[in-house]
Amino acid sequence: MSIHIPPLLTYALRRILQAIPIMLLIMVGSFLLIKMAPGDTVDALVGDMGGADPAFVARLRAEYGLDESVFVQLWRYLMKLAQLDFGWSYVYEQPVLTVLMARLGNTMLLMVASLTVAFVFGITLGAFAARRAYSLTDNVISTLGLVFYAMPSFFLSLLMILVFSVKLGWLPVGGIRTIGAFKTGWADVIDVARHLVMPTAALSLIYLAFYMRLMRTSVLEVMDLDFVRTARAKGAGDFRLMVHHVMRNALLPVVTLLGLQFSTVLGGSVVIETIFSLPGLGQLAYTSVIKRDLNMLMGIVALSSVIVVIVNVLTDLVYAWLDPRIELK
Amino acid sequence: MTGERKTILDIRDLQISLPAGGDRPHALWDFNLTVGEGEIVCLVGESGSGKSLAASAAMRLLPEPHVHVSKGSISLDGTDLLSLSERQMRDVRGDRIAMIFQEPMTALNPQKTVGWQIDEVLRLHTRLNKAERKARAIEILTDVHIPDPASAYNAYPHQISGGQRQRVMIAMALVLKPRLIIADEPTTALDVTTQKQILKLIKELQQLHGTGILFITHDFGVVAEIADRIAVLSLGELVEQGPADQILNNPQHPYTRKLIAAVPALTPPPEKAMSKEPVVLEAKALRKTFAARGGFLSGKRNPVIAVKDLTFELRRGETLGVVGESGSGKTTVSRIVTRLLEADSGEVSIDGRDIISASKAELRALRKDIQMVFQDPMASLNPRRRVVELIAQGPIIQGVPRETAYARARELLSLVELPAAAANRYPHEFSGGQRQRIGIARALAMEPRVIVADEPVSALDVSVQAQVLRLLADLRDRLHLSLLFVTHDLRVAAQLCDKVIVMSKGEIVEAGPTARVFADPQHPYTRSLLDSIPGRGWEPPVLSVA
């Protein structure tokens, strides 16, 4: 399997350039939506303070630049964004970018872990179920999948916290590290991993079930195709058949969905991070909405769209690698 | 019967059971067949005769346990294949028995290179190292006359043509010099000129290696071209078996006689006097180019010229055949004259009324006069509608009252020789030939002046094909219809068409009365096309069918 890097790279670059107008549209849309919602940063601040006199409120608004028209504010924001200046968070008293970067790692860790678990277990179980289609094993796997698929992730999270943290005491309730433990090296890695077990499980199970169902159908379909019969006629055994002929072909629809669903998973992380007090982008988004931290919210939207665009380009590249009939142009 | 030839494959009293509830309990019944060294045995039968299951049984690739061998023996060079373990059988497959399938596009894994797929056979059955395997693969690709074997080795199946893909399949089957090759309709999906080359190749390599070939086909032309011996299968029963010459020219069993009688003779009907009837359909300087796909920021691709400067006329009561190979643009023509596809330029008129520039409302009225019959009757009939609704739908859209349209639909069923009870059934309850009759009735319901038929009999068995062709000819004469008949099958064209136009790469290379074009082709392409018709040296005997 040879990949010619230059055309792939130009393809990726072109796709990212194509995404710029889309991202601009997202930014403008989000900005206007947030502005349309009642209340702003100053309202939230004043609310926290328990009220203040109108002159002070007006002075604060002027200081934050909130007294101008929405379009002037939007223009000013976009101009700064063009210089990669995400602005200042009045809630965190730090530049937005600094806060975002501090949180990005945790969210990516959760996303990558969840999608990897969902994908690897999903396709393996799906292929396994398809090989034994309509048997007891298949029925058990498929039914379990349906149960996971139907269970809301917040409910599953609370159930897990109750069982594994409260009753059994095996896993920490929330956070990303044990507070005040200051572990280093492997001890730190293990500590983080222990904190990630439940959030990952809660976020991935629904997708795991989904990929499993999809993979099962896809494998069943591919196993009926002519070239699988050809491989059998060549004398290939079951294992070889699955690995070299069936699985890779069956992966195509799963990979497509994986790319499309990345943004949904990112959205799901808002709920999961909030429940497990995981200091990531999702939790940050939640608190920023409550505090009306406009710059922070816009920063999160911008960063998320960049991530989604990159992931979609990567998905296309993987797809092209899987299916040589696709030409990247 | 095999003479002094050494027997390779020996099938005795084979019985294959089907799951309960099928149309019959056994797919094959008391099936006896031998294939000798260097012999080509053609197993002939119509769809559902069980011929492909016989091949699967020999490979032990039946969809068990639903379909399984319930009796009999299959031996290869004296080894009883049915008693081998699955592990042992795997060693036989691909090494001592190889298979070539019908559809070379789908029979190759789209995700692996040609080289990888040939290499897999060598990896499974030999201890050769990587370099030796590659050398052997390139050698076999050379043997099957693939141009530039080294680059074909690295190509993916979609990057090479249909004929080359079938050569790759043959290379894959031959690479280990198997004792027996089972070829299941290996040329059915190919154009005639390619088919001729592939048949020649199979014969050439088989003579070189002394391989036995079990060749499964429904096409008597191909049989006449290649068979040493013929076995005829009907509904799971072997009805006749013998040397090719005897079966082709002096068949005994009524079923064989019926099949051979249905093979269209290559002699077209005698040339008619110049028709004085008015021109019904006229096309002038038609042109259609398919633009390169992709838009915004995409790379450049060359546009494909599907039809260029095409002109023809069709008179009342006349049948004009449009013949050509795949990619010749013949289907594009049928789509343009019905305006299912917009032409880039040119004129099409029906009874002098322009269809190309007709407005939406005008077009709806014009559509009534030109109707289509499609190739795949299953895919072109809505499976959720009753037959009577399918037939009546067109007239109802044109404003005919429902009751009248339904009554007319029922009349049409008898016109296409279907029972009145068919009206209330669904398309899946009918056989392929019956479905095509429904398709014809649907077209007739609009009382058109012209019927455009795009490969209407290509998906049908030969005996059914003959009936549908007869029906079309009969309706044309009774209703004074004009037929534009698109086909790749020159035998069919010879039987039905008064005039033909031969297309190649979007252009008419030759046109004229069928009898004249067939007897004295002027253009080299027409000549090569006629020359490639399988079994052209064999004139099907005139048989009285009981």
From TrEMBL, chain A:
It comes from the Bacteria. It is a multi-pass membrane protein. Belongs to the binding-protein-dependent transport system permease family. InterPro entries: BPD_transp_1_N (IPR045621), MetI-like (IPR000515), MetI-like_sf (IPR035906). One of its GO terms (biological process) is transmembrane transport. SUPFAM superfamilies: MetI-like. Its main location: membrane. This is Peptide/nickel transport system permease protein. The chain crosses the membrane at residues 12-34, 108-128, 140-164, 196-214, 250-276, 296-322. It is found in: Cell membrane. The keyword Thylakoid does not apply. Residues 104-319 form the ABC transmembrane type-1 domain. PROSITE patterns: ABC_TM1.
UniProtKB/TrEMBL annotation, chain B:
GO terms for molecular function: ATP binding; ATP hydrolysis activity. GO terms for cellular component: plasma membrane. Residues 9-260, 281-530 form the ABC transporter domain. PANTHER family: DIPEPTIDE TRANSPORT ATP-BINDING PROTEIN DPPD, OLIGOPEPTIDE TRANSPORT ATP-BINDING PROTEIN APPD. It is a peripheral membrane protein. This is Peptide/nickel transport system ATP-binding protein. It is found in: Cell inner membrane. It holds the Pfam family ABC_tran. Signal peptide: none annotated. One of its GO terms (biological process) is peptide transport. Keywords: ATP-binding, Cell membrane, Membrane, Nucleotide-binding, Transport. InterPro entries: AAA+_ATPase, ABC_Ni/Peptide_Import, ABC_transporter-like_ATP-bd, ABC_transporter-like_CS, Oligopep_ABC_C, P-loop_NTPase. SUPFAM superfamilies: P-loop containing nucleoside triphosphate hydrolases (SSF52540). Belongs to the ABC transporter superfamily. The lineage of its organism: Bacteria, Pseudomonadati, Pseudomonadota, Alphaproteobacteria, Hyphomicrobiales. It comes from Allorhizobium borbori.
